[in-house]
Amino acid sequence: MVIEPLHFSTLYLPCDVDALHFTTTEELEPLSQIIGQESAQAAVDFDTTIRQEGYNLYAMGPSGSGKHSVITTFLEEKASNEAAPDDWCYVNNFKDHRTPIAIRLPSGQASRFKEEISEFIELLKTILPSLFESNEYRNAREAINQKYVEMQSAIFLRLQQEAEHYGVSMNTGSASRVTFVPVIDGKPLTAEEFKAIKGEEKEKITARLNAFETIVKDALREVSQLSKTMQRELMAFERKTTADTVETLLEELRESYKEVPKILAYLDALEQDVIKNVQDFIIKPDEMEIPPFMREYYTPSFRRYQINLFIAHEKHKAAPVIYEDNPTHQNLIGTIEHVSQMGTLVTDFSMIKSGALHKANGGYLILDARKLLIQPFAWEALKRVLRSKEVRIESLAQQYSLISTTTLEPEPIPLDVKVILIGERIFYYLLYHYDPDFKELFKVSADFEEDMPRNDENSRLYAQMIGTIASKNTLLPLNVEAVARVIEHASREAQNASKISTHLGTLSDLLKETDYWTRKAQRSITTKADIEAALQAQKARMDRIQNRLYEQIAEGTILINTEGNAVGVINALTYISMGGHRFGLPSRVTARTRLGKGEIIDIERKVELSGPIHAKGVMILSAYLGSTYAKEAPFNLSASLVFEQSYAMIEGDSASSTELYAILSSLSELPIAQNIAVTGSVNQFGEIQPIGGVNEKIEGFYDICIHRNPQGEYGVIIPHANVKHLMLKPEVVEAAKNGKFKIYAVRHIHEGIAILTGVEAGGADEKGIYPEHSVNGRIMARLQNFTKTLQQYHKNLTAEEKE
User: Is 166 helix (H, G, I), strand (E, B) or coil?
Assistant: First the structure.
């Protein structure tokens, strides 16, 4: 059957401008959500609605497909209808400073609580000094002091009377020091006089002194006990005075937070600490005789009474949607900061800082999977938090003994958050396979599509998306022809004329670059010409390697024949993608056949310059040859295949049909037309299978041919299944329309070999015999000659040679 070239109308599917129904994108309503991702959006909606354990979300798809935009927009809209979560604050634990207490408050109340406590402390700083300096307090304190002074005076008066009884003279230096000397005849003795006394008289005087000393000691102990009692009474009075004042000031606070037991307990502890440390409120370092540079060390600190406003929300706001761009361990779960004081690292509850999980608590947390996984300890920390449903702030340095300083152990905070991981598909499958916790914690996946069907409805939606991007980025409006060209390019990006790429990153970049060219041309509306200028500029920035390779072919450095015929020589179409630039390049494939043992030598594989997929393709064509031409007879063939002038790794099976054509040409000794290039893989039944990069491959061969001889006629053979992928550039379509460039779409190897050689492949009759002059008939005759030659060779061998 004769295969006709494809009609030029099948090589490019233009966008129907009349179906778009607008003149410029200014007329279009902006889109509120990304198009073509209905399935992924349904998964996001399901995950954020279900409130069961482990139902967190992994959103996967290629970078730039709009995952982040879709999820953020959806969550912000959903969160706007949800109540803001509770506030959290940390307060000092007056019983153990190392374990700060976490207090939960309704949304919007934590800030008020902090202000009220701050006002309370400031009020104490004013009221307590005034209270202790008041006449009433001083008079009461003086009364207590006077009472004990009188009691002490009574003791000393009694002691004076005892001194007269014991014949001594007593002198009271202070309440704790009493001196006395003996008295004879009303005159106190000096030390010399007392020393001069001898005998029995001195013994009597000494006995009196000892007896009186015992009385003095008892009296002094009584005085000392009275001093202690006085001090205790003064302190009790001070505490009672402070307690009465603090209690009065705290009544309103206790009433305001009577529904929060933790705050009531905190206020009780706060009251006791203020009473205990009331002197901190009274002391005035400025009035003390202390050098100015030392005063800060004597100034009391009131940090212990501050409230660490850990997480605070504005009243009546929505649930939080938090995106953490740098998901380190401390950015996720929070950290405890330290400061250096006198060469020592110190910390307190006010230095506890919240993490992204705290900020998203009661809402949604969005994380990039790649960024999360490359951060040490972050992934394990996130899993631990999701399993335990509480966030415990831990110091990694302390945990791994990197520092020996004392740190805090804050009370953990309960967690209720939906975590959304965004990343490539490979990370999802690797985590699912290798991390058993992953499938338990992330039970929902949203897979973002790379393309969507191309029809009138979706084209109009795509036009709206173009208008939305233009408006959001303050770009000039596009006219309908420009939009149509963008849609056509999106089909090219999708590698399918019936699809439109949903890769928003690529679309946005194209529109921004087009806006540059529009403004440079001093136009107020973007046209199709501006789109073409942007596309050409993109290509020009990245096609250096492509141009160098084309130059080498033009110079004859790389041998590519585009004219005449040759046996066992064929042009394969290869596909190269480097740094985002894709292009096609012809590559010369040659095959040689001879008598052998039924093996096909893949030279690339022998020298380890081919990958496993390419090796598989060669094995498949070997199986095809054996099953087609040697079903019931030895396959006495040896063939070699090679990509000429190939010095790098070759991978893929898209050249397997090309290699098979070269072998068939060599076996049949029929020359192949060199002005036709081939791409497509083959299976064991000779069926041609689709390949990737078909547009780039065709255009690459076209560019080489036209550069050599613009007047010549050329063509390519592609798999029939690739016809729907064709979105060729205008030059190729025009050449096909004029009959200068023919594109053949084949389904079987027989169709392709007939085009290449101009000879029918030939089908076998009932006896399995092919027509004599067909390609297959020639091959069978050649193989039979190989067999006869081999048999004759063995027949002529001597018995000794056979052994």
Answer: coil
Percent of the chain with pLDDT over 70: 95
Task: State the greatest distance between any 2 C-alpha atoms of the chain, in Å, as a whole number.
Answer: 168
Which amino acid, residue 414? P
4-49, pLDDT tens digit by residue? 999 999 999 999 999 999 999 999 998 877 788 888 888 988 998 8
- From residue 521, alpha-carbon distances to 63, 467, 748 in Å are 32, 20, 50
pLDDT of residue 791: 83
Q: Is 629 left (phi over 0), alpha (psi -120 to 50) or beta?
A: alpha
Q: Rounded to whole angstroms, how far apart are CA atoms 151 and 382?
A: 71
In this predicted structure, what is the pLDDT of residue 605?
84
Instruction: Show the tokens assigned to 760.
Output: 């029918």
Report the DSSP beta bridge partners of residue 168. Answer: 182
Q: Which of 697, 740, 742, 774 is catalytic?
A: 697
Q: What number of helices (H) and strands (E) belong to the chain? A: 29, 30
The pLDDT value recorded for residue 647 is 82
CB-based contacts of 602: which residues, under 8 Å, 6+ apart?
A: 610, 614, 615, 618, 641
Q: Residues 6 or more apart from 37 whose CB is under 8 A from it?
A: 66, 70, 448, 449, 502
Across 104-108, 170-174, 713-717, least confident range: 170-174
- The set of residues, in sequence order, having a beta carbon less than 8 Å from that of 640 and lying 6+ positions away, is 591, 592, 600, 601, 603
Tokens of 210: 């000892």
Q: Is 697 a catalytic residue?
A: yes
Contacts of 21 (CB under 8 A, 6+ apart): 460
Q: If we measure between CA atoms, which residue out of 419, 426, 423, 424 comes closest to residue 442?
A: 419
- The two tokens of residue 19 are 């179906």
Tell me how crowded residue 333 is: count the other CB atoms within 10 A of its CB: 24
185: three-class secondary structure by DSSP: coil
Beta bridge partners of 453: 499
Asked if 48 contacts 65 with a C-beta cutoff of 8 angstroms, the reply is no
DSSP-H helix ranges across 172-317: 191-196, 199-256, 261-276, 279-282, 295-298
| Distance, CA of 115 to CA of 100 (rounded, Å) | 19
Most confident of 24-33, 357-366, 394-403: 357-366
Residue 740 CA to its chain's centroid (Å): 52
Per the structure block, which two tokens stand in for 207?
Answer: 């006995």
What does the pLDDT read at residue 492?
Answer: 94
| Nearest alpha carbon to residue 395 among 348, 333, 307 | 333
291, 103 Cβ separation under 8 angstroms = no
- Return the half-sphere exposure (C-beta side, CA atoms, 13 A cut-off) of residue 264: 8
Give residues with Cβ within 8 angstroms of 268, minimum separation 6. none
Angle at 526 between CA 523 and CA 529, to 5 degrees: 95
* 206 φ/ψ sector (left φ>0, alpha ψ -120 to 50, else beta): alpha
Give the per-residue pLDDT at 32.
77
Residue with tokens 């089909």: 491
The answer on pLDDT for 399 being more than 70 is no
Spatial CA neighbour of 580 closest among 467, 484, 493: 493
Residue of 354, 395, 491, 654 marked active site: 654
pLDDT at 316: 65
Q: Other CB atoms closer than 10 Å to residue 611's CB: what's the count?
A: 15
Give CA separation, 133 vs 127, 128, 137, 799, in Å: 10, 8, 7, 134
At residue 635, what are phi and psi to the nearest 5 degrees?
-100, 85
State the Cα–Cα distance between residues 247 and 239, nearest whole angstrom. 11
Residue whose C-alpha is closest to residue 320's, from 354, 353, 352, 356:
356
- The Cβ of residue 347 has, within 10 Å, a number of other Cβ atoms equal to 18
**Local structure of 90: helix, strand or coil:** strand
> Is residue 298 predicted with pLDDT exceeding 60?
no
| DSSP per-residue letters across 317-361 | -B--EEEESS--HHHHH-EE--EEETTEEE--GGGEE--HHHHHT
| Residues ≥6 apart with Cβ < 8 Å to 296 | none
Known catalytic residue: 654?
Answer: yes
